Amino acid sequence: MAKAAAGSDDVRGSLKAVRRAGAPAGPVYRRIILKLSGEALLGKRQYGVDPDFCAFIAAQVAEVHRLGVQIGVVVGGGNIFRGLAAAARGMDRATGDYIGMLATVMNALALQDAIEKAGVPTRVMSAIAMNEVAEPYIRRRAVRHLEKGRVIILAAGTGNPYFTTDTAAALRAVEIGAQVILKATKVDGVYDSDPVANPGATRYERLTYSDVLAQRLGVLDSTAVSLCMENDMPIVVFDLNRPDNIRRVAAGEPVGTLVNGGDPA
Question: Strand 31-36 vs strand 70-75: parallel, antiparallel, or unpaired?
């Protein structure tokens, strides 16, 4: 379990904190993939999307964008529909996964609205064709949008069932030449056990891909971690609820847990 997301009042206060932040350090990463779970958009709600929390995320994305960082966002759909859970209740797995992909498009549109209200041009690109609401995902077009200063939101996962949005984030990061994946969570990194259930849990500052796979630490699913390992794509797991964390990660500050191919610190 993870701690609850900030309430509306906390979100508004956090937005002010982001805007009050002093002159930020220059970015270390020039092109990033931000991986958001669908649950990250819940805020205080039990279901759907919290506009206040979307605005909180958008303020952080806009802050990083102003530093010249090119940003791609991959969003999940678990706040609306989770295919794996539906399959466990008897639904065909492929059907459940396709419904989940459609849920990610709804989340992507909500994020697009929030980010554009924060003053940043944004494009939603879908791995499933739905031309009335999103562009089709084409790698060269995605890269061009980034070069033009637009944030891209990559929806519908990989477009294939049996693959998670974690795997989609790893795949898209490699395809567009990102330098890091920022895995947003509700805790401040990777722990050796659930920090909510076990107050004595130890947080790792750094891990290797092999550590994550061998210990089943659940940073991303094993397919995504393997893809990152094969392509030397670092992953930073950090707390989304703390304002300015995305900028701090982009600036190379020691936030959360770093997963890469080096020896653990």
Answer: parallel
pLDDT band at 171 (very low <50, low <70, confident <90, very high): very high
Q: What is the pLDDT of residue 193?
A: 81
User: In one letter, which amino acid is 61?
Assistant: V
pTM: 0.86
Of 113, 93, 29, 112, which is closest to residue 64 (Cα–Cα)? 29
- Contact by Cβ (8 Å): 194, 1: yes
Closest CA to 114 of 52, 175, 195: 52
Q: Which domains are present in the chain? A: 8-15+30-260 (3.40.1160.10)
Contact, 108 vs 155, CB < 8 A?
Answer: yes
Residues 201, 192 contacting (CB under 8 angstroms): yes
* CA–CA gap between residue 149 and residue 122 (Å, rounded): 9
